User: Fold these one by one.
Assistant:
Number 1:
Amino acid sequence: MNINTFIEKIEAEFDELEPGTLQKETSFKDLDEWSSMHALIIIALIDTEYDVVLTGEDLTRLSSVEDLYTIVKERK
Amino acid sequence: MPFFSISDVKISGIAAAVPKNTESNWDYDKLSATEKKLLVKTTGVENRRVAPKGLTTSDLCLEAAKVLLKELDWKKDEVDILVFLSQSRDYYLPATSIILQDRLGLSTNCMAFDIGLGCSGYPYGISVVSSLLKNTGLNKALLMMGDISSATCAKEDKSTYPLFGDAGSVTALEYDESAKKMCFQLNSKGEGYKSIIIKDGGIRNLINEESFIKKEIADGIKRCNLNLALNGLDVFNFSITDVPKSLKEFLSKTNSNPDDYDYFLMHQANKLMNETIRKKLKFQAEKVPYSIKNFGNTSSASIPLTLVTQLNDQAKKNRLRLLLSGFGVGLSWGIVTLEINKIACPKLIEV
């Protein structure tokens, strides 16, 4: 698993995002496009692709894309 | 582990009723155009049936039951058991099932009681009624199920209002020694009770003046303590972890796999959630019908409603081996496998 494919997968789930918008340091919850629906989408994606379960609390605690990547990698 | 089977009981018919009145999420003004698109894509809910003020769950169930009894040609004095499973009863007391006994014109020689469950209700209700039929010598039962959720969701709460639809259903069960055995697994996880809750109005928090005060919880989420509060993320997590885990255990205990079932009908909660479960269990998409697009989350009515609207012809003409799973408020979840064979299945009734 590497962070670039991870970012591409997440970007693909946000229809509205221009490719390249998400960077390691992007604080994804501060994006204008972010909504609670995206939390569900990310949880489902990470569960399906990596078999890792994120909770709502995890998502509240995390801020950057890299944080998200790190936690998925740790739990995998 | 509450895994068990019940033999000698079959489902003879299933009917469902919804209010005529339809609301579309495309017209829901608490969401921006982008939010609407995202909501529909994620939850799968486009339209919902919404009961006018005063129309109750029992009214919907009653209409469904009238049509079903006629189609089955059951005499009213033959019905020995009436169970109403719902979270939207007519009155605080008495139990709605007892009023239904009278409204349906059933004999007083009919036992009637309520069960207070929601989304997990179908497997639970079937297990209770089937055990009674198996063990008592009684012959025929009606299991009514459903909810009016629109009355308790705040219209100003975008986290609940666009998700739920109103519906009622009835399932007719009878003692029959030629019936294939049903297998069940039923679970509970009370630690998650706050995930889907109406806080006030019970004995724990008696209704008081503050119960009516609407508070802004977050942007687009305004409700009072008499409204349904839903922690979508917690429920989502529960549904994509505990539920498929139990389903996998169940399949292994019953020594079965997706090929052994014609259809897998899930509680209609959220399309993304249900699809995640479906993929985990490796069920083909064709075997997993949905009613959520046009009816939303219809609580305990969702499984019978899906069958009536999506598999109507097949249920009438064929023998179908079904895997059914309900999950949600409680938290509570259950699974049942059963076979239906050319059952009475009237077209969806509109009230």
Number 2:
Amino acid sequence: MSASTKYEMTASDKRFIGWHMLFAIAALSIGSLFGPLQTFEHAGWDIYAQPWFQALFKSYYQGLTLHGVLNALIWTTFFITGFTTFTVIYGLKRRLRYPIVNHVGWWMMVVGLVTAAIPLLLDWATVLYTFYAPMKAHWLFYVGLTLVVVGSWIEGYGFYLTYYAWRKENPGVRTPLMSFMGVLNMVMWQIATIGIAVEILFFLLPWALGLTKGVDPLLTRTLFWWTGHPLVYFWLLPAYLSWYTMLPKQVGGKLFSDSLARLAFWLFLVLSVPLGFHHQFVDPGVPQGWKMVHAFLTFSVFLPSMFTLFTVTASLEIGGRARGGKGWLGWIWKLPWGDPSVAAQLLAGILFMFGGIGGLINASYNINLVVHNTAWVPGHFHLTVSSAATLSFMGISFWLVPYITGKKLWKPKLALVQVWLWFIGMVIFSNAMHVIGLLGAPRRTPLGLAPYIPEEWSGHLLRIGIGGGILFISVYLYIIIMAVTALSKKVPADEQVEPPVAESLHDPQQTPAWLDRWAIWLVIALALLAIAYGPQIVDQLMHMGATSPGFKVW
Amino acid sequence: MTSKNESLHVDSYERTWIIASIILVILFFIAITIAGTMMGIQVPGQVGRVDPNTVAQSGEFAEPGLRELAPGKYEAHVLAKTWSFDPREITVPKGSTVTFYVTSSDVQHGFKIQDTNMNVMVLPGQVASLTITFDEAGEYPYICTEYCGLGHAAMFGKVIVTD
């Protein structure tokens, strides 16, 4: 059994993580301006059309692009790399092996963010966060995104070098679970982002720079979705990490099964990437057979999420019963709902159950015909990236930011109100989005301007606006709480926050060794990727029609 | 330090849960397979490539629209471009089966006919095709479901199914 879980992190490591949080929350504070404006537009109050607003931002679509890029790509990536740095250092109880590597990666991400922000803010890259060719953004946008992704890779290399050093220092010891999960998520991310890296470096960037005349829209879409779906797992796995390795401690429970937790993560490594065609079910040019294969693989990746649901619930139950909970469900009410960090993550988990069910529907091959590119889809992913991930990240930051700054969380009761507002706002918004999606409303569309929207939908559209308004209040409450916390006075050493580290019900050394070896799982992951994507990518490359010139349509 | 036991310990409730999850997923997969094969609810596949730069000038998309193949059987070629569909209106009698062929001469678009299973991506360079039967009279708007520029929200047309 490992000794104490405590580890004194150095001030400079804490500061390094703090910079990640600062940039993540700054991106969220700008990106979250626009989401509510979209919902208000749906409800009939179009601020985008106001002349004073148009002096700053040109269109609904520019706002939507900023919302998607800053929230879904920047807030997440910066938070996750920072949080992963914490899980590597704190879990392994050692400093980064070569901090310079992590710092180089970090600076690349920052330079990339600034580089991408310029064309975004100047309306030179109003291509949404999927930047589907042949819509052509300014080349700075592609360069900026590339730097963010490559920077995150280099931070990942810093984690691997640290982990490798730890393995040599601790032969035969099971990798501490939080570090294992953090590193695994970075490995999955690096396999996943091969697609987008190839898309940008070989096709979009040369084309945006005028070096090539055309691109193939199908091929670039395929490469995008190689990355696009596992991106969702890159957001989710850090939330799972917290639910498995931290939340049980926060509720006074224990991790139910260390082995199953590791097995679930290995399955995510293997299955997260080779399933991107489920975003292209209704694309012309991809054979139905391959779409079916990817539908099956998408169903398979549902399984580790089901394992997670079991293990996390069982771990919470241990806590609820230890606190005096009785009966089948009585333990739920005994959980420390008054702790904003706990409440945020429990509510995130509840919303995510509906996100998971909706996800299965999206993945269901022909059922996707009903929902593809309708408002259902953003309704769905606001339950995943904006609830399971973002609401959990908010919960994590309620202890992480005080820990790295040596401060105390400002107004925990207000934080509790904030997470409940998020939950309520999201239920209203997401439900209405699902409903109008089923009725046929398209996504990515200012519905107030769409002539084919029937009058009868106005009730749903109003609910979208109300939900968006509540979320708007919630997110800025969060940002204010974080800012005031970070700017408050340091608290004495004995009042400092201790990071929650859950113990496992069984000694992790009992976990079979094959659940702590990388080579075989990496081979399986790459082999499955080659099988699921290889033939189609080769076929698309051989029949490539780089015929589309660029278009600026905004 | 290392445990000799290499087998995975699984709690009995946990095992039940895992098996139930696997069965659930398999049942769902069988259901969509039956819908896809026996009930013919299909998604688009490979039809063929076209050159988006010349598609509006020559070939079947030069004069898009409805063509009757046999009584009650039609094909419709639809060209999507910023920010309209050509044709803007298609009229068929009730009970007609229409095979749609849709492509784009510029950026990506979407083509979704409301209240039907017609919902495809429209990619420049590719032809998207699905067959739909219209059993009830009425108006079915078809709308662009992919962001295609400033005029995207107003990009639509309609199928009129007459009695």
